[in-house]
Amino acid sequence: MAMLIAARRLASGSTRPVSSESLRYTTSCRYFSTSFREERDTFGPIQVPSDKLWGAQTQRSLQNFEIGGDRERMPEPIIRAFGVLKKCAAKVNMQYGLEPSIGKAIMQAAQEVADGKLSDHFPLVIWQTGSGTQSNMNANEVIANRAGEILGHKLGAKAVHPNDHVNRSQSSNDTFPTVMHIAAAVEINKRLLPSLKQLHTSLHSKSVEFNHIIKIGRTHTQDATPLTLGQEFSGYATQVKYGINRVSGTLPHMYQLAQGGTAVGTGLNTKKGFDVKIAAAVAEETSLPFVSAENKFEALAAHDAFVESSGALNTIAVSLMKIANDIRFLGSGPRCGLGELILPENEPGSSIMPGKVNPTQCEALTMVCAQVMGNHVGLTVGGSNGHFELNVFKPMIASSLLHSVRLLGDASASFEKNCVRGIQANKERISKLLHESLMLVTCLNPKIGYDNAAAVAKKAHKEGTSLKEAALSLGMLTSEAFDELVVPEKMIGPTD
Prior knowledge:
Structural class: mainly alpha
Order of helices and strands: HHEEHHHHHHEEHHEHEHHEHEEHEHHHHH
Radius of gyration: 31 Å
CATH topology of the largest domain: Fumarase C, Chain A, domain 2
Largest sheet: 2 strands, antiparallel
């Protein structure tokens, strides 16, 4: 224990007593080490774990923001986006005088970050400076040290400097919003949209498969007029299609990059054309149509593109909540519920009730939707707090959106594969409920009028008889006339 306390003090550069709580956190952290090297920044020397590529500023942040633990780390897509951006920056900076040997080493190191090979060297949590400066410096330090290694230097030698070389022509204020946009655009395109498109395809297929099955409709959770099960599923498919269109419609703003605005949007310490060239390099690297933002002041001070995109994700969550709820209610039972749908049975549902199977995919999806709605609230608050030339809620905004994209993408894929694809129609149950419904009386309106039709429905309900029996008893219609008028197949669309 004494050795651990000494190591803690050595790492922090402090002689202050270490609390048991701080010691507990540090010794349980996977970044704890008893072997250190010295790194320096403008605050002076600090001890850094000898086997880690980060430097002084990352170490200070790691110690100053012990908030939330490992689960609150900066999202992996942000880290990989830093690799993409720093590689492109080095490529462009070589055109403006960066030493080629250093530039090429930076590009190689940055590619390793983009490939996820150095992710363990990015320990910082979301809850840090609101500009993301510490994470930008984490990227600069890791890439600088790794590039130095590639060139044959020891860690900490700064043969490749994190600020002068890796961060050349950049500020955290334009770098972090740029990686936010890169990460979000990549994740939406590669994770979310493919899952939603597959879900739409499956729902559309079910709408075609079920198009001949006539069932009773429900409004206000009460019996209504008939429609086909296919028509019902076509509504679900269209909701998802519109969701795809909505989130896709937010991408043009997401493709606009802040890089080149530097500290406040003016482009101080960059060369003319740097912003356009780096956007083109990112576009080439990601195969996505990134461009330089037309107004860098907006790009630094506001994150309306994220609020807009999150709004589309929130709408998708609303849609999927409705779809999942409908499907689980229509599949309720198996004997005492609506029972119109037969849902796939994936696992036992109860630890006490033998044979019980639950609509677990629907439940998982609805929980995801609730989380996405909550993320949108937090992101909206963050987006509204851009003060003067800089929004300082960036890490939270980025994390919230990426969390929603990941959840919706994964949950949509799971729901499609493990639920929608295997849904069957319980035709016998559907037919039984259809012919028991009092709302078939609606097709009598043109013949006997609304008031008389209502009297038929009320009498049938009160006496527990069929609509036909009630109509004949009241002398409203003959048996032949009733049979000619009350045909469910003629109630699922406009008449000629």
